[in-house]
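ugh ok fine here u go
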Amino acid sequence: MPPGSIFHVGEQKIEKVNITLTEYDENKFETCEINSVEEIDPYTDTPQVTWVNVCGLHDTELIKQIGDKFNIHPLVLEDILNTETRPKIEITDNYIFIAMKMLSNNNPENQIVTEQVSFILGNSFIFSFLERSDSIFNPIKDRITNNYGRVRKQTSDYLFYALMDVVVDQYYLVLEHIEEKIELLDDEVIKSADRSQIEKIYNMKNKMLLTRRSLWPLREIFSRLIREESALINRKVIPYLRDLLDHTIQITETIDLQREITNGLMETHLSLMSNKMNEVMKVLTVIATIFIPLTFIVGVYGMNFKYLPELKWPWAYYALWGVMICVVIFMIFYFKRKKWF
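structure:
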């Protein structure tokens, strides 16, 4: 399709698109659910901060109406609807667009789930676009409702930062989950190494690769936000954006450290498996070595010669057994003395 085509790419994760509008300043706030873009009109030219949160990206007509209403470029709308797009930033004179990947593991299977979150910061308004529930933003809603913290006292760019900060904080929860799994896996590998743990280690590496691939572009995004002198970003918000960049760098370094630990787990597992195989081979070699002289003895007396001196001796059979038992005992004692097993 041509560039700028308004088409949803990805899985539809909720049945109905839910739009919530929140308007506030230091003295008052209002929140409501709206059903059409036209209902935003009374809030567009007010001095208060207006936050429109859209849950569900499959309604392409609704996204197109928002783009037409607020003069958002079709390529930006295309990135909002394409849930497979790479995290990115677009800065124009009228708005700032940021697409991020949000990770979570609060599901029954405890698997890491990726969701795209997009933000558009305009002059005194913010749009946020999510694929499913917006429960992740409940802490921000509580601050606005109860008027505690800095949100109600700041402009829309601070809310812009606060929403992105919530998304980045989710990475800490995912890293905590990965770290717990690594510790459990470390104990399993040390106690007993088996082939089933290889799959667990590879799954862990894939989780870390997904987390790093989602997080790494955010460093450039936040760095550019700090460097660019946009009229939409107040200089008072820059320190908060620097703190957000520091969190991103810290998380990236933690992921790299966890990858090193996982690689060490893989090497430890392979070493333990190799040692286990060596122990098995050593036992088999000892058994085979013990039977070599016994095979020689019975081979000698198993030859079809007519004259063997011991054949007519009544105690020959028992003497032969005695000799073989003594050979076995001597070899076992010798191997233990050498600490070969």
